[in-house]
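Problem: given the chain below (195 residues), write out its structure.
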Amino acid sequence: MNELLLQTIVDKLNKVDEGIQHMNSAAPQMPDYIEQLKNVGTSLEQIKTDVVGMPERLKFPTAAVYALSQNLEINNDLLKRPPVQEIRHHHHVRAGLILSACLFLWTVWLFNMRSILQAYKAGDIKYRYIQLQAGKPLRPFLSTIDSLYHVHPQAFRDSVVQWEEERQRIAAMLHEAKEKEEEAIRLRNKAGKIR
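Solution.
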């Protein structure tokens, strides 16, 4: 039985060989892709090593993110407490400007003193003219006034001011009386027309 089994197996193998040869003779010659397949194999090996190393390269940079978050916390703290800036204004005035201002004020003061001096000179000339033109009765009166002024100048000034105020008060009262008299005359005329 063993022999029969062996013979059957050998016959079948021979038929398979004949079929393979028949197929080889019937099929056109296939090009030799062995070199290209070797290249593809090496490329696949390279891709395999790249894919294996990819998780390391794509790994999330936790250390860098931690450092960045630390810096952001520091910056936020600094922004919450901004530095106090003290602003100082320095005004630099040039010496020429100060000198010009001083000269201007001095000129104004001189002009004012000149006006006062001219008023005194005018008063002096008027007084001297009155003394020269006045008759004999007026000269003793002017001398008396000069003597009174030189003895008590402040009291003399006060009495003159008081006298002027009294004259103005009397003039105002006379003016008011005149207006009231005119009003009374107007009312009498109006009453006379109505009768």
